[in-house]
Amino acid sequence: MYAYGLLPFIVSTSAVAREIVFPPIAAIQASGQVPLGKDDRVDIVTGSQFSGLTTFAHLPYVNCLVDDQAQFTPYDIAILGAPFDTGVTARPGARYGPGGIRLGARRLQGWSIYTGVNVFKSWATIVDCGDAPLTWLDNTVISSRPTNTTGLGRTPRILTLGGDHTTTLSALRSTYDKWGPVSVIHFDSHLDTWDPEVLGGGISHYAGVNHGTFLHIAHEEGLIRNTSLHVGIRAPTVRRKGDIRNDIRCGFEIIKARDLDRVGINGIVEQIKSRVGDSKVYISVDIDVLDPAYAPATGTAEPGGFTTRELLSILDALHGLPVVGADVVEVAPIYDTAAETTTLAAARWLIRCYISWWKRRSMITSV
Ligand SMILES: [Mn+2]
């Protein structure tokens, strides 16, 4: 009875239904995939954020660590992962940082609404070199392994994806080999100039090489200038006065997190620029410079930090500095939110670095 009663309705529906006409698949041709239209349209086929292997911002992959494969592929800027986290003093997990940051970089394309620059269409050839072959079992091995590539006749800039902050020591050794001592602009909630005798306990050389002592070691090795500075400091010191005295001795000035409330973005930028002067610069961003609300996925989170917008505004304003190397470190994706809060922020910061270099093409190509 029920089926019989429904039948007239089905019949009458069929009678008025229209055929759905699907458009031809315009973007696919026999010769391969091509953009949908002119350059000003979005390429939703080959430009998909989901296709291909996950390199940083879909940059081409070059195995920079094998001369045979790298020598015919010149590049200006290289992304290099440093999957290492045995130098941490709290939560581990930054060895997964490079992969996490690459996932956070899937949608990095286009022109900046603030600067008008599209770094992927600027002068620089940018590639992703994958991750460095590091051991995760010995802190002293990473610190003796150079991360730069030098066999191509010019010196590419390296953007390192950490890894814990110990990895910056090897990067500073590498930049020193090419450019001598650099000023370090160190965005962090912690000083990281702790004496290995204090943070490491003097137990062994191995214990003294960690993510809180690498800037002390860099100073002792003469890798950095005494025109360096920290930005965003707020973590407590271990010693009442000794840590600050040692920090000054290592060549650093301190901009505390709450200084932003007092002097604003412009005030901080002026202080940074006046401190480093004309010297060559290495920018190191420990993602814990951000407040844990904006970057929870890190090893030693400290409340009371910058917002993502504040950090990006400062970095944008640093364009024009002669940056010779940079990194973003201490990203431990396992602690991130499901919304990838931290890895998105880490990926954005790297774009800011490109802009700095883009403004200094003449300086870069002359060395
Ligand atoms: Mn740090």
TrEMBL record:
Provide a GO biological process annotation: spermidine biosynthetic process
Q: Which Pfam families match?
A: Arginase
Q: Name one GO molecular function term.
A: metal ion binding
Q: Which InterPro entries match?
A: Ureohydrolase, Ureohydrolase_dom_sf, Ureohydrolase_Mn_BS
The domain of life is Eukaryota
Q: Name the coenzymes or cofactors required.
A: Mn(2+)
Protein name, entry field: Agmatinase 1
Please give the organism.
Aspergillus nomiae NRRL (strain ATCC 15546 / NRRL 13137 / CBS 260.88 / M93)
Source lineage: Eukaryota, Fungi, Dikarya, Ascomycota, Pezizomycotina
